[in-house]
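User: Before I run my own analysis I want an independent prediction to cross-check against. Here's the chain; please return only the structure tokens and, at the end, one sentence I can use as a sanity check.
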Amino acid sequence: MTKNAPADQISSAIFRVAAGHNYIEPEIAQELALLSVRTSGRSPLSHPFKDLTRRDLEILRLLGEGYSLLRIAETIGLSYKTVANNCSHIKNKLGLARTADLIRIAIEHQISTQTGAD
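Assistant: Structure tokens:
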């Protein structure tokens, strides 16, 4: 759920989660459905992160650990602009639209710098 979600949507999410159900923001659910459609032609054995570089995976891992883009830049010794550009390239490679999607993917897949890169 994004911080800009309407109050009624936040309330609904809280009640669903309290009742033991999952909640996915409608926009994220739509992106997941579209991602599923876009990737449905891939071989089941293809790795979703195979096109990511070690740097991409490092940035993705740090996002999943809760780092801001500025903190990532400071941590790995790059400019903020370079990290932001890398995030855009990662989103394009994975067919995602938002940084929140990258964070979700990093957390769900427990991204490490070793995942998928050769």
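Sanity check: The CA atoms of residues 6 and 71 lie 29 Å apart.
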